[in-house]
Design a protein that fits this description.
170 residues; mainly alpha; 5 helices; globular; Prepilin_IV_endopep_pep; transmembrane; transmembrane helix; Prepilin peptidase
Length: 170
């Protein structure tokens, strides 16, 4: 089961780096595989566990998608991983992916010397949301900037690898 999950994640990362998109066909196959594996391993309880992992991540990530802070492919990829790992694995993977993404982002901001400019933009955006003004997308996901874009699928893949390694005591 882990090998299958890692194969899906690897393909998703490759697609993301190539085109800034992850195929819906790949995501659907990953979701179906995670559900099927858990159904075969633990029956209806396993299927419910898989669906709980998937739905929990959807509920947590949908607001970020609505604000254009996260792409649909990233949301669906995390949901597929949650289908394999269940709610606890999904939460671990989400937390680790956010941490890894933050490290990548800070590294890029330092490299491109726009750390304070990006923090100022984020502060302005959050202030706008809190003050109740109209909410505009944080980032134009249709035209990703090469310098400031991180491939969050890589963060997700690394986070799931950490989860799988932690489960084996590695």
């Amino acid at each position: 089961m882990d090998v299958c999950l890692l194969a899906f994640l690897s393909a998703a990362v490759w697609m993301d780096f190539r085109s800034y998109k992850v195929s819906n066909t790949l995501i659907a196959a990953a979701l179906a595989s995670g559900l099927t594996f858990n159904l075969m391993l633990a029956g209806l309880r396993g299927a419910a566990w898989a669906m709980a992992g998937c739905l929990l991540l959807f509920i947590l990530l949908f607001p970020l998608y609505c604000l254009s802070m996260l792409g649909a492919g990233d949301v669906k990829l995390l949901m597929a991983a949650g289908c394999f790992t269940g709610p606890a694995g999904g939460l671990f993977s989400l937390s680790a992916a956010v941490f890894i993404g933050a490290v990548f982002s800070i590294t890029l901001m330092i490299k491109h010397r726009n750390f304070f400019q990006r923090l100022s933009f984020l502060w302005s955006y959050l202030t706008q949301i809190i003050s109740g003004h109209c909410v505009k997308p944080y980032y134009d996901l249709k035209n990703p900037g090469r310098r400031e874009t991180i491939h969050f699928s890589l963060c997700i893949g690394l986070a799931v690898c950490l989860y799988l390694a932690a489960g084996r005591g590695i």
